[in-house]
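User: Can you model how thymidine-5'-diphosphate sits in this protein?
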Amino acid sequence: MTTVKDCTLIEIPVVEDYRGNLGVIEKDAIPFNFKRVYYLYDVPSSAARGGHAHKNLYQFLIPLSGSFDVILNDGIEKKTVTLNKPNIGLLLVPGIWRELENFSSGSICLVLASDEYNELDYIRHYQKFIDFKAKK
Ligand code: TYD
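Assistant: Here's the modeled complex, given as structure tokens:
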């Protein structure tokens, strides 16, 4: 059974240069192969994203710009992680309920995902999530 402790911060290698920094995510930098990339932008500061868990999907969240909070919940423990450095991403393993809040103005959240979009992989009801964790 996965826990919030499995959701670790991973430092992204950066090529530093006086002309600006260049972050690189190669295949082995994160513990899954990614098949999809998507991003959140123009998120109002009062908005909450997420509010679901995934059965099998791995994700890696990168605050390309600005900052936001990720509230992780494994059904037992809750933990809030603030992402605000474009070279530090958060690994989200399957079976974690997450909420994203407190987006700063102009923030961008890039997400690498281990699979294509599949609504059947989502658990969008909290009680169903608790039942899912109890069965594991
Ligand atoms: P959702 O994953 O719930 O967004 P968030 O967790 O950021 O709040 O997705 C929001 C909507 O976008 C939902 O209707 C599904 C759709 N969507 C896609 O069509 N493709 C995708 O790759 C993603 C991530 C979402």
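A couple of observations from the model: The radius of gyration is 15 Å. The first helix runs from residue 126 to 135.
User: Helpful, thanks.
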